[in-house]
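Today's session is about reading a structure prediction critically. Students often jump straight to the picture, but the first step is always the sequence itself: look for stretches that repeat, for charged clusters, for runs of hydrophobic residues. Only then move on to the predicted structure, which in these notes is written as discrete structure tokens rather than atom positions. Here is the chain we will use throughout the hour.
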Amino acid sequence: MKLIRQGTVHGNMIQITEELGLRDGQMVEVQVRVIDNSSTLTGEGWRRCAGRLANEWTPEDDQILEALRNERHQDQRRELSE
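Below is the predicted structure for this chain, in token form.
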């Protein structure tokens, strides 16, 4: 029998999100495939990402981000000649 379920890693344990339907104590073989959800970071993912940058972030980085925000909001349209 082959079951595919998703779970979350907690230390050296994997918590399965759905019922497996197996008896308690049943021996199983586990194959792990990491689910890449890095392109959709939300909540805890953003906190982990920001936490990794916390020690390296500088006031200059804040200035760069502010300049990018300002540039993005500038009117970039050109006037058409008649």
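Discussion point for the tutorial: The two ends are 73 Å apart (CA to CA).
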